[in-house]
User: Fold this.
Amino acid sequence: MKEKVPMRWLTAMLLAGVVAGCIKNDIPYPRLLGKITAFEVQGQLGEAVIDSVARTVTVDMVDTAVLSSLRLLRFELSDHATVSPALDSIIDLSTPKTYTLTTWPDQSYEWTITATQTVERYIRVQNQVGEAEFNADEHYALFYVTFEQPLESVTITDMKLGPSNSVIEPDPAVVHDFSIAQRFTVKYRDVEELWTVVAYQKESTLETGAADAWATVAYLSGTIPAGAGEAGFRYRTSSSDQWNDVPPSAVKVEGTAVSALLEGLQPGTEYVYRICAGTEEGPEVTFTTEQALQMPNMSFDAWNTTDGVVYPNATQADPWWDSGNTGARLGGKTPTSQETSFLAVSGEGKSAARLETVNAIIAMAGGNVFSGHFGSVQGLGAEVFFGRPFETRPLRLTGYYSYAPKAIDNVKPPQNVTLPFDRNTIGGRMDRCHIFVYVTAWDGPYRVNTTEHRYLDINDPGVIGYGELIDSVGTGGQYRQFSIDIKYRDNRKPTYCAVVAVASQYADFFTGGIGSLMYVDEFAFDYDGIPVWEE
Assistant:
């Protein structure tokens, strides 16, 4: 599982200020959270998705795995947690499996583990129209052929109805009469399924699919009849009569399915496209590319002070950015501040953000800036909301940063938590700064509550794309230009975006170098090029 993006630097900042005036003697027993920190079974695809808030683990399995009998390879828990029922070497995930984690003193947490499994199915025949359709629950499939193709003499060129390496009886290559429904037995290991396959005749037409349009590229799709000839796409702007051909090298054909990546488009522009094969052309489909939007004040030129708190916004009437300054001011510190002298780009009215790791009363605090807003101090923690409404998909975050790290001289992580470092050896190492970006499909701002141990998590299912920069060497007292690729997981349309910079990556664990100093300036989103996909 990817390392959770550290967010408890905010806790450190707030704790430093709050404890100074709120120390009491009636502190309750510590709450030790019971968490599953790692999970793996044989036949698992990629890493498990662990959601510590919903207390769920989801794994994707190869199509040959028998979900009722999976060999358990790894099941790791947070410190001081026990699990029931007891673990066996074989686990049944044909239905969601529930475990109870118990920590001291008698605190219980229920977790659910779910397995998903996708079986690729297809039927390919001569003179086929479109793609075959499947009902896996009813074991029913249908395909279409042209009106010129007699149903009594269909030729199946390829068929897959079950997991990889499954056997179909009878051999589909010798079954030709589909004037009646045909039945096939799919065998895999000790499992047998009886499938019903039917055929219908349909007008031989090309079908233009929906486009997945980004700012400067679009993923095109469509279907053609089998044997229709060389396939491709044509496109134009809606305001033009001039058609352009998508380069053949960008077109991919799989059976009757055709796709292409169209590059070099203009943001916020309406286009029309259609599929073509031989002399035939499909219907026209319209799509509009996304706007190449920027966040307000990504240059960090505008600042204001409201009620004694410094904010990286022109005014607080419509704030876009925030920091932990609201909590840290209780400790008399301002780790995040406006910088007007040391800039990446000089000029009238230009500024940068200065982020410093400081010792605020009894705890360190890492300077930070993030798109979102601070909620409130809650006990020894805080409630914070990350992300601002943002409905486009940038390809990378660019900008400038300067970093002068100090050796880590403050190592005070809380007990009974899983750390991304060895608390016994990290002291003396150089501190690390962190810049990261999330493009998400959240329903609203992501609520973080450090008192409830709810943090921003890279494995959150709402995260569509992400990118990060970490530096422990520094920039030698100068600004360095950076470009962070945003790696996308799927093609969902975004609703929110969160950008964060912090001077000490592990300040959330009260660990870092006092005096580590970071400047950030002239952030921007770049939309040119081809999307990068998570491997």
Q: What stands out?
A: The chain is about 5% helix and 45% strand. Residues 216-288 form a domain with the Immunoglobulin-like fold (CATH 2.60.40.10). The first strand starts at residue 36 and ends at 41. The longest helix spans residues 9-22.
